[in-house]
Design brief:
Elements (H helix, E strand, L loop, with lengths): L10 H4 L6 H32 L2 H25 L5 H24 L5 H15 L2 H13 L4 H29 L2 H20 L14 H13 L2 H17 L6 H7 L5 H25 L5 H21 L3 H29 L5 H12 L2 H15 L1 H18 L1 H4 L3
Helix pairs in contact: 2-3, 2-6, 2-7, 2-8, 3-5, 3-9, 3-15, 3-16, 4-5, 4-6, 4-8, 6-15, 7-8, 7-12, 7-14, 10-13, 10-14, 10-16, 10-17, 11-12, 12-14, 13-14, 13-17, 16-17
Length: 406
C-alpha cells in the first residue's frame, strides 16, 4: 500500500520519500530492460539487414518481440493475479539475461544464425508481455492511485531515456566490437536489474483469486465492453501499434539506404526519437494535471504519426533527425498515459486483468510490422513508412466516436 504523503509537495518530490524506495527499484528494473530492448533492436536490425538485405526480416525481428503480447497478454494478466509478483519479476529478468548470454556465446564462437535471433526475440517478447500485469501493477500498488500519473511519467521517461542510450550503445558496440559485444553489454545490464529486483521489499498483500484463469479473462473482457473510456483508450492503442510504432523497425533501413549512414550514424539517429520522448516525459512529470491526461494521450498519437511521415520522406539526415525528436515528444504523451488511463479506469481487483487486455492490444503490433515489412520490400522503406503513417491518421479520424469518450 502507498504511504501517506504531504499533499502540498510536488508530485515528483513525494516519490523521493523513503517509503517509495521500492518504486525506484521497480523503475530501475524497467530502465535496464528498456535499454537492453533498444540496444538489441538496433544491433540485431543492422546485423539481419547486413546478412539478408531484407527489410521484411528486419521488421520480423521486432514483430516477434510483440507476438507474445497479442497471443498471451490476457492470459498473463489473469495469471498474474495468482502469483507473487516480486518472484515473477526476478524470474523474468533472469530469463531475459540468460537469453542474451546464450546469444553472446553463439556470436563469439561464430555459430550465431538468423533463426537464433528470431527465437531470442520471441523469448524477450514473452518477458516483455509481463511488464504491464506485473511490474507496472506493482508500481501502482506501491505509489497509490493519486501518484500513478506521475509514476508512469517517470517510468515512461526511463523508457524514453533508453531510446537515447540503447541505440547509441548498440551502434557503437556493433561497429567497434561486433554483435557479441552488444550481447555482453546486455548481460552486464541485466545483472544490475537482478540486483535491483532482489532488493524490492514489496510483497503482495492480496490473496489469490480462486476462479479459473479463463473465467477471469472473460470477466475482464466484459468489464472492458461496459466502459466506453476503456474501449476508446484500447482502440487508440491498437491504431498506434498497427500504424505508428512499427516505423521504428524501418529506422535502420531508411538511415542506411536513404540517408547513407553507417552503424554509428544509425545508432545516433535512432536515439533521437528517445531524446524527444525523454524530454516530453520529464515535462509531463512536472506539469501534467489529471484533466489533461486524455489530451496528452490523443494528441501524442496524432503528432507522432504526422512526424513519422516527415521522417520517412525527407532526404536530409538533419531534418530527419529533427522529425524523430518530434515523434518522441508525441510518443511521450501516448506512452505515459496509456497504462495510466487504463489503471485508473479499472477496479483495483481487476487491474492485472485489464492491463493484460491492454497488453493484447499492444500485441496487435505484429500486424503492423508484417504489413510494413512486406510493403517496404515492395515499394521501399521510406514510401511504406509514410503510407503507414497516413493510414494511421485516417484511422484516428474514422474512430473519433470511440476515443472522444476517454
Amino acid at each position: 500500500m502507498a504511504a501517506a504523503t504531504n499533499p502540498n509537495a510536488s508530485p515528483v518530490r513525494r516519490l523521493l520519500r523513503p517509503e517509495f524506495a521500492d518504486f525506484w527499484r521497480l523503475w530501475s528494473v524497467g530502465l535496464v530492460v528498456f535499454v537492453v530492448r533498444w540496444l538489441e533492436t538496433v544491433a540485431v536490425g543492422v546485423v539481419v539487414y547486413q546478412r539478408t538485405n531484407s527489410a521484411f526480416l528486419v521488421s520480423m525481428m521486432t514483430m516477434l518481440r510483440l507476438l507474445p503480447m497479442g497471443l498471451l497478454g490476457a492470459f498473463l494478466g489473469a495469471w498474474a493475479e495468482r502469483i507473487e509478483r516480486r518472484s515473477t519479476l526476478i524470474a523474468v529478468v533472469l530469463l531475459m539475461g540468460g537469453n542474451s548470454a546464450v546469444l553472446g556465446v553463439l556470436a563469439y564462437t561464430g555459430q550465431l544464425e538468423i533463426w537464433h535471433l528470431a527465437l531470442s526475440s520471441l523469448i524477450n517478447g514473452l518477458g516483455w508481455a509481463t511488464d504491464n500485469p506485473v511490474r507496472r501493477v506493482m508500481i501502482g500498488e506501491v505509489v497509490g492511485a493519486e501518484a500513478m500519473g506521475t509514476a508512469m511519467s517517470l517510468d515512461a521517461g526511463a523508457n524514453n531515456a533508453s531510446r537515447m542510450v540503447g541505440p547509441t550503445i548498440g551502434g557503437l558496440v556493433l561497429a567497434n566490437v561486433g554483435i557479441e559485444g552488444a550481447f555482453a553489454v546486455s548481460v552486464l545490464l541485466y545483472v544490475i536489474a537482478i540486483i535491483a529486483a532482489l532488493r524490492i521489499r514489496y510483497r503482495d498483500s492480496r490473496t489469490a483469486h480462486p476462479g479459473a484463469v479463463l473465467a477471469r479473462i472473460a470477466e475482464g473482457l466484459r468489464m472492458v465492453r461496459g466502459d466506453r473510456r476503456l474501449i476508446g483508450t484500447l482502440a487508440v492503442t491498437v491504431i498506434y501499434n498497427v500504424f505508428a510504432w512499427p516505423f521504428t523497425a524501418m529506422i535502420p533501413v531508411i538511415a542506411r539506404d536513404r540517408l547513407g549512414l553507417g552503424p554509428e550514424g544509425v545508432g545516433v539517429l535512432a536515439s533521437l526519437d528517445g531524446i524527444g520522448a525523454f524530454a516530453g516525459a520529464v515535462l509531463l512529470a512536472m506539469l501534467l494535471k489529471p484533466s489533461w491526461y486524455a489530451r496528452a494521450y490523443l494528441w501524442g498519437v496524432i503528432s507522432y504519426m504526422a512526424m513519422l511521415i516527415v521522417f520517412a520522406l525527407v532526404p536530409n539526415s538533419a531534418v530527419a533527425g529533427l522529425a524523430l525528436v518530434l515523434t518522441g515528444l508525441g510518443g511521450a504523451g501516448f506512452s505515459t498515459m496509456q497504462a495510466t488511463l487504463v489503471y485508473l479506469a479499472a477496479p483495483p481487483e481487476m487491474r492485472s486483468r485489464i492491463l493484460g487486455v491492454l497488453s493484447v492490444c499492444i500485441g496487435t503490433g505484429p500486424i503492423g510490422f508484417v504489413w510494413l515489412g512486406l510493403l517496404a520490400d515492395a515499394i521501399g522503406a521510406h514510401w511504406a513508412t509514410a503510407l503507414n503513417g497516413a493510414v494511421g491518421l485516417l484511422a484516428m479520424a474514422l474512430t473519433r466516436k470511440l476515443w472522444r469518450e476517454i
